[in-house]
Design a protein that fits this description.
Elements: H1 6-15, E1 19-21, E2 33-35, H2 37-56, E3 61-64, H3 72-78, H4 80-83, E4 85-90, E5 97-99, E6 128-131, E7 134-137, E8 150-153, H5 158-163, H6 165-172, E9 178-187, E10 202-213, H7 217-235, E11 242-246, E12 258-265, E13 277-285, H8 289-294, E14 309-317, H9 318-327
């Protein structure tokens, strides 16, 4: 059977040397975790298995390792500077901060039996947009007031793939369909980080963009959904603990035509079965959005003949797979 609750897993993970709270001797740091001696081996095995399956065992996918810090224009053209936001609200009474769209998922800091805004003492502000990218400055004399010095820690690895599309295409002499895979750190300044290693601010993504002709996109999208379900089974994750969730039109990202999430039963202790599941990975049909916006730059004119192509994006947070394997009912 799966573990009864997340508290049991946290305790077990620490006792067995899988995961430790980061900076623990100084009181820790919210949503930050260190891999222990067994945890780092499990994490490396997950990444190695994914890489071998996609890059080494197939003949249509190339590998890439792009920089964590990119030119700011990458995030301007991709839309992240303008759209990568969460709705943030504050409570004037308890000084707590919450995502407006996740109020029912958290408890009031002062009154644990209710959600923020439900107690008579609650005094919530109007929602405002909060950009999730970690901002920094580059250069020895840089300052926050100098726009040319601003840079971001990447919030996803996908853009590194898109801006290197022409490089990979020209050096590998690939023809459609083909994919580019990458494993690397990403950073998101989450308003409300999740439980344990769920929805952390620093995480490792395993992403692959599969480029194809527009007319082939629907079939290939479904093929990748099926393939990843089979691969999870090969890792020992029970099919009974997995389910598919089709995002509604209202939930879809601005670039997506269709997105299917693979959910895992992370919270078996919850009475409501629907609430037992949370996202393990997402597989999106991103259309031609990213190549099209980056092809506006003169250096990308070579892409103009490719912008009618579509690409599938199987995207996963390695921490979620790590947690699913610990929770799995198969050793």
């Amino acid at each position: 059977m799966s573990a009864p609750n997340i508290e049991t897993i946290v305790s077990l993970a620490k006792r067995r040397g899988f995961v430790f709270p980061a900076s623990e001797i100084y009181g820790g740091l919210g949503s930050s975790w260190d891999y222990g001696q067994l945890g780092v081996e499990l994490a490396n095995n997950i990444k190695r298995s994914w890489w071998d399956w996609l890059v080494h065992e197939r003949d249509d996918i190339e590998g890439l390792d792009s920089s964590i810090i990119q030119n700011r224009l990458v995030w301007k053209y991709s839309g992240h500077e303008q759209t990568f936001h969460d709705p943030l609200i504050d409570c004037r009474a308890c000084k707590g901060r919450f995502r407006e769209d996740k109020l029912l998922d958290v408890q009031c800091p002062k009154h644990a039996s209710v959600h923020p805004g439900e107690d008579k003492e609650c005094d919530l502000t109007e929602a405002r947009e909060f950009n999730l990218m970690f901002k920094t400055t580059m250069g020895p004399v840089s300052s926050d007031e100098d726009p040319s010095a601003i840079a971001y820690l990447r919030p996803e690895t996908a853009q590194g793939i898109f801006i290197n599309f022409a490089n990979v295409l020209n050096t590998s002499r690939r023809k459609l369909p083909f994919g580019i895979a990458q494993i690397g750190k990403a950073f998101r300044n989450e308003v409300t980080p999740g439980n344990f290693i769920f929805r952390t601010r620093e995480f490792e993504q395993m992403e692959m963009e599969y480029f194809c002709r527009a007319e082939d996109a629907p079939g290939l999208h479904q093929q990748w959904i099926d393939e990843f379900q089979k691969w999870f089974a090969s890792l020992g994750i029970s099919a009974g603990n997995l389910k598919l969730y089709e995002q509604t039109k209202e939930e879809l990202a601005h670039y997506a035509e269709r997105t299917v999430d693979i959910l895992y039963r992370f919270f078996p202790e919850r009475a409501d079965e629907e609430k037992q599941f949370d996202e393990l990975m997402g597989i999106a049909n991103r259309t031609d959005y990213d190549l099209r916006v980056h092809s506006k730059k003169p250096v990308f004119t070579a892409l103009l003949n490719w912008v009618s192509s579509r690409y599938m994006q199987p995207s996963a947070n390695q921490l979620e797979w790590f947690r699913a394997l610990i929770l799995s009912d198969k050793e």
